[in-house]
Amino acid sequence: MNPDESVPAIHLTGVRKAYGKKVAVQDLSLAIPRGELFAFLGPNGAGKTTTIKMIVGLLQPQAGELRVCGHQIGANGLAAKAQLAYVPDQPFLYEKLTGREFLYFVAEMYGIPPSRRDQTLALLERKLDITEFVDQLTESYSHGMKQRVVLAAALLHEPTVLVVDEPMVGLDPKTIRTVKNLFVEHARRGGTVFMSTHTLDIAEAVADRIGIIHRGRLIAIGSLGELRAQARREHSLEEIFLQLTEEEHE
Hints:
alpha/beta, 38% helix, 9 helices, 4-stranded antiparallel sheet
């Protein structure tokens, strides 16, 4: 992990991205420190996935700057990507590999020595409960099984920044609790979790701060208490979310 904790783990400044005439993300500025579990919320089409793809370097902004642990995405992309891991909403695995072969492949890409790989993987196998199927071909996996192996792959090189898009889709309640605990542990160890989700009760339960994006603009950010103050009501995150996005719509 990056030893300089004064540098934001994720830093966006004036970021803009459009597809033709449709502006997906407009003038987005955001700083997320080390040790924070940040939930990124918004209606469908609000710009969440576009933002995530720019943070991890899959899309380039048309304006603004993105940095991960001080490294600029684009100009110093490899250094930035070495500090992060990305779990998309649709987990991808090579179907003719077993889960373990896939994890070994990921470890080799990151240059993880076999002894460290095996030690870390043994811990992740237990935490994510993948031991029973990790040596089966991934073509036989359910969505939830794929999601757990992809999460293990993301955590294998012990990234500073973990970026996850809808991480709880297809998971059973027990695994959801396990994944929530993993995210909280990662943040408490000084890492950063950037989590886009529609599951508002999970965001309410675990997030240190919450950002709400609507029509490509960040319309609210803060702790649950701060969002309640902004919405002028002491209610659930769901009710606050609906109020703020409806006000913005009007």
